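FORM 7B: Structural annotation worksheet

SECTION A. Query
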Amino acid sequence: MENAINPLDGRYFEKTRELAPYFSEEALMKYRVMVEAEYLIALSLLGKTALRKFKPEEIKTVRSIYEKFNTASYEKIKKHEETTNHDVKAVEYFIKDSLSETSLKDSIEWVHFALTSEDINNLAYALILSDSLGEVMLPKIKEIISNLNKLSIAHKDLPMLARTHGQSASPTTFGKEMKVFAGGLEKRLAGLQSIKIAAKLNGATGNYNAHVAAYPDIHWTDFSEKFIESFNKSRASKLETNLFTTQIESHDSCVEIFDAIKHINTILLDFNQDMWRYISDGWIGQIPKAGETGSSTMPHKINPIDFENSEGNLGIANALFEFFARKLPISRLQRDLSDSTVERAFGTAFGHSYLAYTSLLKGLGKIKVNEIKMKEDLMAHPEVITEAIQTILRREGAEMPYEKLKELSRGKEVTLADIHKFINALDVSEKIKKELLKITPENYIGLASKLASM
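SECTION B. Predicted structure
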């Protein structure tokens, strides 16, 4: 789409089109039609109103309105909206039109019975979030975790120089560092999957006013709970009823979801930055692709563009998620309409997140670990074993071991030979000296290999 303002609908559409069936305007209309249709069916099957019970084939007719929903259906709704200037009322009229030439023409005034538009909207968005998470977002996050766990196992024993404050520090393994990210993501993913999406079906100010006025003897709270939970049958992210609302559902569970995704995105942003540094240091190489150009002027360049693209998109997504969290729980009195336009941006935040995930995975598919360079740089920093030496000397009751090793190594370039000379001059047993002399930057990795395998 050459004239698209949003890059997700332009430059990146082919990479984010999997979200279109959930967050496009046409998709929103389809979900609204689904909620209206299922509500009409539920009223019919309730058997406690003047609405007659629909025959099985009539139920199929009602469901076919959203099951066969297409661009032509969407355009009919938009045509109604030109007159109504109200998108949900346009959906109501579209459904009535669709039933007016069927055996259900006697029941069309039961479409949208006793409801307010927000009853339809909040349920439509709840279903959109549930389906987009289950079908698109969660599988991509799981794919990232799987890739990181594979790297963790494959390189669990590969020693690597660690850095704290950017300075050389006690060695780790590349596999264990990958496990840090995989483990964090697994926890956050479990939290995201445990969130239930709240929804409501209780009228204009949340009190079932119109419902009770028409049918005071029906247990409308039970009806709404049963109706909302009926959407859970084939969904991983479940819906639950919020009985205590104003005209709008409070959006608190939406914020929980956005905060959970934002946390996942933050972990991935951290990962992208670490990978950028590993590539910069030459510890990780990138496999060149024929025909690609890294720089318009420097022929040798293979830039870490996929990790950089991912980082940038994660930042955009998280900025939106943070705004959603600040904005959505706030509504003037029983409602204002400022949340409506914000909800239409959910797909933008999801789209930038999804684009970031695909870019990250593309980057992982192009890397190769440079074990030789990683080990060379580790062995160039023998000072990292001074922690081990002073700790063992503390165990043996030696006098001021930390201070002596600090004098030897802090702010200085030392070699392994310098450290061995220091060890041989110590006033300790030959057994302890042999123990100390066996320590090298490559074998001083603690439980890193075991942790990477967990």
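SECTION C. Observations
The domain at 381-453 is CATH 1.10.40.30 (Ribonucleotide Reductase Protein R1; domain 1). The longest helix spans residues 117-154.

SECTION D. Sign-off
Analyst initials: ____
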